[in-house]
Amino acid sequence: TQVKNPQQVQEAGKETRTLQMDSREKKQGDIKHKRRKQNEPVETTPVDIWFDDVDPDDIEAALGPEAGKVARENLNIRNDRTLQALTKAVAIDCEMVGVGPTGEDSILARVSVVNVFGKCVYDKYVKPSENVTDYRTAVSGIRPEHLKSGEDFKTVQKEVADILRDRILVGHALHNDLKILLLDHPKKKIRDTQRYKPFKNQVKSLRPSLKLLCEKLLNVKVQTSEHSSVQDAQAAMRLYTLVKKQWEASLKEIPKAKKN
């Protein structure tokens, strides 16, 4: 992730910015076979769970709470503090407010980042660099009091850039978020839920909204009133984890196809 140079910042400031076997060694003859009572739950052990880069939440949903617990232990995820850690993939979403005579131009007001577990790892309001003429509260959820104690834009920009560096970036219509942050990110590390072709085909839309994708693919309603950048980032991450294996596999197939 790169911060754009001062000249680009100055020029962009004038633009509209619309947005991871325990085998028990027993001597021969030591193993005794007991008949299990009917309906007695089977205890899940580490040896029963084989997974490669699978979210423990997904394992829990498929195999039950005990399986999820073992998976988290295998990943050394034993407490909420660890769940709050940065992961290989993070999702981002920004909220903007309007500036200028008509309030049509946009500046950053809030940026939120969540990890692959949907836990918020970064959430800050940004102090406006110019007079806000439209808080867009009905959509952005931003109010004057939120920005009074906001951070300086450059501070937020640097902190976000540091978080995104070398990570897979998930989001919806990410070009808008990167533009308002004046940041670049390697194309090969971007996972944009608006641009993922299987999603577009499933909902029959060339530019599906986050709201539509969540409703059709997750059976979840989002953005029913004021937007929340945390919730929108969580929604984008959930969509990504839903098809993570297929998505990542499809990206590995592209170079092979070009060679043929």
UniProtKB/TrEMBL annotation:
<keyword id="KW-0378">Hydrolase</keyword>
<feature type="compositionally biased region" description="Polar residues">
    <location>
        <begin position="1"/>
        <end position="10"/>
    </location>
</feature>
<dbReference type="InterPro" id="IPR036397">
    <property type="entry name" value="RNaseH_sf"/>
</dbReference>
<dbReference type="GO" id="GO:0005730">
    <property type="term" value="C:nucleolus"/>
</dbReference>
<dbReference type="GO" id="GO:0006364">
    <property type="term" value="P:rRNA processing"/>
</dbReference>
<feature type="domain" description="Exonuclease">
    <location>
        <begin position="88"/>
        <end position="249"/>
    </location>
</feature>
<comment type="similarity">
    <text>Belongs to the REXO4 family.</text>
</comment>
<dbReference type="GO" id="GO:0004519">
    <property type="term" value="F:endonuclease activity"/>
</dbReference>
<dbReference type="InterPro" id="IPR012337">
    <property type="entry name" value="RNaseH-like_sf"/>
</dbReference>
<dbReference type="GO" id="GO:0003697">
    <property type="term" value="F:single-stranded DNA binding"/>
</dbReference>
<keyword id="KW-0540">Nuclease</keyword>
<feature type="region of interest" description="Disordered">
    <location>
        <begin position="1"/>
        <end position="44"/>
    </location>
</feature>
<feature type="compositionally biased region" description="Basic and acidic residues">
    <location>
        <begin position="12"/>
        <end position="31"/>
    </location>
</feature>
<dbReference type="GO" id="GO:0006281">
    <property type="term" value="P:DNA repair"/>
</dbReference>
<dbReference type="GO" id="GO:0016607">
    <property type="term" value="C:nuclear speck"/>
</dbReference>
<keyword id="KW-0269">Exonuclease</keyword>
<dbReference type="GO" id="GO:0006308">
    <property type="term" value="P:DNA catabolic process"/>
</dbReference>
<dbReference type="GO" id="GO:0003690">
    <property type="term" value="F:double-stranded DNA binding"/>
</dbReference>
<dbReference type="InterPro" id="IPR037431">
    <property type="entry name" value="REX4_DEDDh_dom"/>
</dbReference>
<dbReference type="Pfam" id="PF00929">
    <property type="entry name" value="RNase_T"/>
</dbReference>
<dbReference type="GO" id="GO:0008408">
    <property type="term" value="F:3'-5' exonuclease activity"/>
</dbReference>
<dbReference type="InterPro" id="IPR013520">
    <property type="entry name" value="Ribonucl_H"/>
</dbReference>
<dbReference type="InterPro" id="IPR047021">
    <property type="entry name" value="REXO1/3/4-like"/>
</dbReference>
<protein>
    <recommendedName>
        <fullName>RNA exonuclease 4</fullName>
    </recommendedName>
</protein>
<keyword id="KW-0539">Nucleus</keyword>
